Amino acid sequence: MDATPHWLSPEEKAAWDNFIRLQEKLIGRLSRYLQADSGLSASDYIVLVSLTERGGGRMRFLELAKLLEWEKSRTSHQVTRMTKRGLVAKEDCPDDGRGAFVVATPAGYKAIEEAAPQHVEHVRRLFIDALTPHQLSTLGRLSGRVLKHMEKQPD
């Protein structure tokens, strides 16, 4: 590997800095609104969305961790906190004695159903409404391109 870093050009640095600042500010603000509106943390919300939209209400623990790009310990702590609050439950996997399922409870479904409309309004107000339809389409394509590129890179 080359010893000299390939530093970012001023334009690259400006693009990267703006992207990071946008992400931090948007996620921070959405997280605060979510907590104030529903009592759910951003982590609670993403777990419940993952389970209810992608997992049919249940998902293998390791599949959930992989989908969220979280380490097992972070996923375990989050699921434990949510279990204590009655939002999810853990179930043993009958096919694999070491595996477990994370399951959205009726309280978890109710929480996400109540939180989602307000959350979407905040997303629309802070993000969607700032862009024209063409800009939004371009951003979607660019984001997809970066995601595909990342999938090809070693983890």
Automatic annotation (TrEMBL):
GO terms for molecular function: DNA-binding transcription factor activity. Pfam families: MarR_2 (PF12802). PROSITE patterns: HTH_MARR_2 (PS50995). GO terms for biological process: response to stress. InterPro entries: HTH_MarR-typ (IPR000835), MarR/SlyA-like (IPR039422), WH-like_DNA-bd_sf (IPR036388), WH_DNA-bd_sf (IPR036390). Residues 1-148 form the HTH marR-type domain. This is MarR family transcriptional regulator. It comes from Streptomyces apricus. The lineage of its organism: Bacteria, Bacillati, Actinomycetota, Actinomycetes, Kitasatosporales.
